[in-house]
């Protein structure tokens, strides 16, 4: 980490002042970002629990459901980079609050869809509203935390998706049982979960500041020290950044293109399982909505332990690419095994696959961050995330089409297995010297 002389007169004082500032930042923003990520994730994937209800009440079949589930990610990919550019213009406080408020309003609007067309429109608008949240938070870390602290902050932030996967099942299952007021249970679910995000945006507005210089909860000395270190690291990155490097020119870098492709394969498997797992559980027996939600949380509980285990092993035996490859092979084996037995065996196999694809997701990000540390910027992070997240469009859309045409998603599960195996091989091609 860059050493900056303390503004109070000695180099020796700088670490203690900086450490105090960093500790305050982490305690203030990380719990909030984790809660935001949980709300974000629930609002994008909760439709997986209402597929049968949408078919029964609105006539939305498997293909239409898969396309509607996936079109969110198409909008998300298209609008993510512009969203991050606007965040740099308007500041994180205003822009992240705006993102949360609008996605909460649109998520609530899912309760009022009337058929396939309105379903597609609202899901697309939800993608537009949420676009920029993930890379916006990552970019926020670059403005508030030194290089040495960002990896740990990212690991804590990413835990939000795993926690959301655990919470969303029982929560959505419980809300689906609500009746009355002229609404079906699935409508109450969308209204309550969407309005919870709207309410949370007021907390975001109160707690977030756009820059360290604006943080009244830091002392003057802590603000100066933190701002000085962040600025020094920014200048170092700018000095090493190739001239006129744009999002599109970076894509010409074969390694960056590989990052996008590998993350795409990981997201394919994650969202293929996320949107279709409740349907698989329903085939296991006669369960209530709440019981389905509880079963749905099991793979994600297992995955949290697996993410920690893999992260510990990767830290102890340093070969990040190899651990990502191992995780992807585990995911491939699990998804392939899910095609060989009945619904109960398929569920157990997906629990095994979750160990792999969630661990691969968390282990992946340090690799591009290490390669891009001299050029890291909001637009670059958004590029990898947005193109990779197109897997969230392809997987549910393909699964829905296959089920409607063939009555089975087996072909899709084979494809997910193959994608994970290919990604496991490609990850080794990302090794090499950092770009200048």
TrEMBL record:
It is found in: Membrane. Keywords: Membrane, Transmembrane, Transmembrane helix, Transport. Residues 29-435 form the Major facilitator superfamily (MFS) profile domain. The keyword Membrane applies. The chain crosses the membrane at residues 25-42, 62-83, 95-113, 119-141, 153-176, 188-208, 256-277, 297-314, 321-338, 344-365, 377-399, 411-430. It comes from the Bacteria. Its main location: membrane. It is a multi-pass membrane protein. InterPro entries: MFS (IPR011701), MFS_dom (IPR020846), MFS_trans_sf (IPR036259). The keyword Transferase does not apply. GO terms for cellular component: membrane. It holds the Pfam family MFS_1. One of its GO terms (molecular function) is transmembrane transporter activity. This is MFS transporter. It comes from Duganella aquatilis.
């Amino acid at each position: 980490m860059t050493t900056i002389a303390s503004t109070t007169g000695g180099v020796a004082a700088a670490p203690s002042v900086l450490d105090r500032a960093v500790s305050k930042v982490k305690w203030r923003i990380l719990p909030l970002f984790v809660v935001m990520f949980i709300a974000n994730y629930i609002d994008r994937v909760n439709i997986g629990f209402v597929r049968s209800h949408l078919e029964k009440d609105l006539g939305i079949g498997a293909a239409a459901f898969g396309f509607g589930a996936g079109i969110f990610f198409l909008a998300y990919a298209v609008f993510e980079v512009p969203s991050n550019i606007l965040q740099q213009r308007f500041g994180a406080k205003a822009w992240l609050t705006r993102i949360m408020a609008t996605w909460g309003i649109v998520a609530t609007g899912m309760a009022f869809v009337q058929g396939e067309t309105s379903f597609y429109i609202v899901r697309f608008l939800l993608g537009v509203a949420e676009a920029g949240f993930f890379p916006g938070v990552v970019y926020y870390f670059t403005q508030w935390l030194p290089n040495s602290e960002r990896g740990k902050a990212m690991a804590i932030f990413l835990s939000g998706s795993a926690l959301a996967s655990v919470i969303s099942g029982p929560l959505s299952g419980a809300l689906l049982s609500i009746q009355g007021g002229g609404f079906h249970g699935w409508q109450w679910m969308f209204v309550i979960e969407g309005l919870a995000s709207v309410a949370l945006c007021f907390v975001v507005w109160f707690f977030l500041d756009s820059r360290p210089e604006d943080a009244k909860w830091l002392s003057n000395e802590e603000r100066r020290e933190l701002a000085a270190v962040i600025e020094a690291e920014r200048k170092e990155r700018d000095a090493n950044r190739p001239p006129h490097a744009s999002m599109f020119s970076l894509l010409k870098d074969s390694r960056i293109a590989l990052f996008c492709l590998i993350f795409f394969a990981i997201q394919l498997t994650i969202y293929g399982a996320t949107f279709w797992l409740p349907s698989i559980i329903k085939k296991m027996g006669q369960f209530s909505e709440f019981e389905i939600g509880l079963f749905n949380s099991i793979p994600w509980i297992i995955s949290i332990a697996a993410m920690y285990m893999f992260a510990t092993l990767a830290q102890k035996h340093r070969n990040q690419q190899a651990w990502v490859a191992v995780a992807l092979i585990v995911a491939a084996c699990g998804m392939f095994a899910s095609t060989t037995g009945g619904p109960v065996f398929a569920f157990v196999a997906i629990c095994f696959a979750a160990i792999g694809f969630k661990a691969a997701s968390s282990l992946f990000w340090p690799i591009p961050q290490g390669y891009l540390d001299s050029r890291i910027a909001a637009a670059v992070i958004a590029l990898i995330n947005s193109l990779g997240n197109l897997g969230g469009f392809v997987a549910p859309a393909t699964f829905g089409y296959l089920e409607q045409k063939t009555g089975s998603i087996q072909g899709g599960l084979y494809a997910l297995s193959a994608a994970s195996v290919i990604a496991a091989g490609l990850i080794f091609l990302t090794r090499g010297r950092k770009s200048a």
